[in-house]
Task: structure prediction
Amino acid sequence: MATHKLLLLPGDGIGPEVMAEVVRLIDWIDAQGIAHFTTESGLVGGAAYDADQLPITDATMARAEAADAIIFGAVGGPKWDSVPYEHRPEAGLLRLRKDLGLFANLRPAVCYPALAESSSLKREVVEGLDIMIVRELTGGVYFGEPKTITDLGNGQKRGIDTQIYDTYEIERIARVAFDLARKRGNKVTSMEKHNVMKSGVLWKEVVTQVHGREYTDVKLEHQLADSGGMQLVKWPKQFDVIVTDNLFGDLLSDIAAMLTGSLGMLPSASLGEVNANTGKRKAMYEPVHGSAPDIAGQGKANPLAMIASFGMALRYSLELGDLADKVDQAMAAVLAKGLRTADVMSDGMTAVSTSQMGEAVLTELKALHA
Ligand code: NAD
Result:
């Protein structure tokens, strides 16, 4: 049986608290011999700055390069508000994404039946929702040059951001989306703004070409990103996989996320290129939420986004899809039994702490393996 090499980077605030609940699962899975892991831990963000005056060290980066999967908590907090900009906690996260070439951001939006009431939309619109947003993460308008503010000398300034996409960037993100769709509902919706943006014209053209060349078995639809946003809140269940650029993906994934209730429930994955020699790809898994300094250290954090992120690592990096299914089932069972952390609490439910929630997920996982 393969041994999977994990690098755990808990980070700051509630990061270490929610990571402890993943470690609980890892230890049990390993002890049972269901899968084998070697785990290392490292510092990132404010914790790394306190120790080394850097948001991540070269030594930790080297361990990240060597890991089969990186499991990341969250970084940041008021304690580090005044550190130099280039050493701010978020710079550690950005370096990981950049140096590891993590160009594909996967954000599932799953609505557990037990939590359908937490959504701002009607139960029938969101119950059973299961969509995947694939966002291009390393290109587009957030990185394109020129990126400047120029003084025009007449009392006016001009701010410029530049949206750039090359064919290869669109091809590789499209492939991630089509490959995922094959393992899910077999449908991809590509979103751009080809009506007003040249990069949108190219995006649509390249996605269509990749589909025609390599993925004719998958259903492909195109939507303008603005109307896609409307459709997401009108009838989100029409979607399976949505693929889109960095900017639209940022917005659309946040909209999709809120369909499902709380930030404490949302996992994500960031994937790099497949290495032609090993067949493996660099990958980092992290909850969508931040370090939540307002509740840190109080046992109030919901660990389910972190646990679901670990589940994504099992599925997308470690080829342990059956185990990932069981982790998902265990979380759904705990929610169905009425256990809730404060962020998703509602009338008649049982309030639990971070560790009680983690313990309950493990109890369900044990039952599923009994
Ligand atoms: P946040 O996600 O940390 O918190 C927003 C709100 O959601 C808070 O009220 C918080 O208590 C709640 N919340 C978040 N996660 C929760 C969980 N698991 N369980 C229960 N409640 C939860 O966002 P913020 O307050 O804007 O940012 C706080 C810090 O986190 C900042 O320093 C920010 O820069 C950083 N941040 C980091 C990341 C990351 O590491 N990927 C992402 C976003 C924000």
